[in-house]
DNA sequence: CATGAATGAGTGTTCATTCAT
DNA sequence: GATGAATGAACACTCATTCAT
């Protein structure tokens, strides 16, 4: 009996999470109402509050798994032995952009981190940590590409690398075009930007070495 | 006699503009309410409507002067005969970043396509036009650097160039550090990023030509 | 269990309808605010939106049932075989007045063209249609009385007939006297007015025919 | 010097009254804003408050002269020796309808009389008195038409007569069509209605006398 | 005498959230 | 475990009115 209950409960919660995830991603956090989520998840809007303290908390609980998943993907790519480092980096960038554009809502979390009330800062920290880990993985892969140790030079380069990614995101995050369409159209450009940066880094390295 | 009146009026208007600029930049256009602006500008929310026809018009009046000024600076640089194109582009990038960071993060407005519904009237179009002009000026300068005609290749490169700039802006816009300090510390990195991109473009061009 | 809920809900909705009806009639649609309705209906103004999509829809739902009922009564009278046409018309007029006065002065809504923007959607059109149907039924009955075909002459006469009815309504709608008392006292006058109009129409017809 | 001042002052006041009158009549009391009046009267909106305590008071001061004028017109018609009583009544009805449709705003005064604050009830009473006088003039003229003394019979008839007028007003007061256009189109119908009523009254009189 | 600056109360509407069931 | 009913706060915006000049 209990199991049946809790089973249903689990299902409802999952439905809410799935629906909210889809809606947040498609329309943006602000543009989605609790009632809308409830309707699509086929439950009452009050039911959501049984599982999530607030809309914000729903967003948080929603983001962690996605971010974790992204991190896992990154790690998979790292461990793939078949890909040359440059391809790895390209693939990572694609994944990163894909993920961020598909989770437009995450912006609000990343950016408004500071506004989180002090008494619930733990999830924040977790999110931040994963962000740093992802950053680190990509920096290392860039190091591989350029045969560079983990030094200040690499840090500077990877910053520039991330400028490019953030620039892409900030350019396209608020576009109203459906994400998939957008991506299909733009992925080649993004790939090109990665290639060019690597070429640029290498060329710059030669210059620097020449000087040194 | 009148001067006291008009002086007060000027001050109020300025306070509204300043406050709105700060708030829009920090929280995004949608997330800021007229009452919030009014409260921080220490006036009634209805007072805002004395000076600005609507929230959207406030945004517009807020963005236009800065953008126009930026465009003028860009044109000055273009016309300078003493600088080689690469230096011009670097200088433009500096100006661009300087300007966006100094105009308290209005870059969200500049970059953000959100406030630019295509089917709306003139105001946004003006903003958009200036944005396009600035983009165009820099694209042309990049063309000079790479000895490229104004074709699709150049367009793709200049997009990538802008990703870098936007990425820089979105990374540092929310920093609490005073802008000047920030800039002094980071300008070298930004310069480096421009250099690397140009190197990358050139290297990529050789590859493409080799192929062709 | 549910019954308590749904009971309360029914009551609230009814309270809103009643209150809105009274207020619209007394002060006019535009002059009544949702908050005012809510306050008098002893609920929050947002509660209204639980039951009615908008202010306009509230007006609509308020008018439709009464109007429909009135139309049905009219049709009954038409089909009665025992009454001579003149009596039918008198009875219809009585019903019309009765109804409008009883439905707390909704006549402002019925008569008032204001809420009937032509370029709007269905709801007002429905109301308008019923209004026209009622008008049509009475016009036809007037035609029977005067042995007139459905031509412009009849249209002109029936307009005048309706002026009389509307005049009665606009005269007595704002009286504070309870409707029933009012009606008992005035019904003879109203009857007289119908008689006089019919006499007048007939006399006028003779004149017109004499001319022709 | 003083005279110049007070001259200007008078002019301003007159401009305000004229403009407000026009606007109230064309758009209705509620739909006109003080700023709109001021702009068209070429003064500041605050200036209006130098001459009129409030918007409502402006409406009142505006209505009295018009009503008085209407009364005067009625009296002129009464005293005209050339017109037969029936023509007089027709002309009076025309004037009445004309006036009321041209001063749509007066509705709010007539109808909302009760809502006037106690401490300024004098104008109310004045207005009411004039209304009664006008009613009386027309009743007497109707008496002339029907060769009836000022008894209950005449009172009943004149009530019916006014139902017709009020019906016309309530039908067309809220039309958005410009008044003049409306009137040109409808005046014939109104004339017909007066004729028919008189015919009806006469016929009814014969019936009553036959009975008696 | 006249005005520009400023405001509080109000409009319809939406939303996340709570409470009783 | 789940829900319908209900609400207060907020949104952009308008208005009649007041105050200092």
UniProtKB/TrEMBL annotation, chains A, B, C, D:
Residues 10-70 form the HTH tetR-type domain. It comes from the Bacteria. Keywords: DNA-binding, Repressor, Transcription, Transcription regulation. Residues 33-52 bind DNA. InterPro entries: Homeodomain-like_sf, HTH-type_Tx_Regulator, HTH_TetR. Pfam families: TetR_N (PF00440). This is TetR/AcrR family transcriptional regulator. It comes from Oceanobacillus zhaokaii. The lineage of its organism: Bacteria, Bacillati, Bacillota, Bacilli, Bacillales.
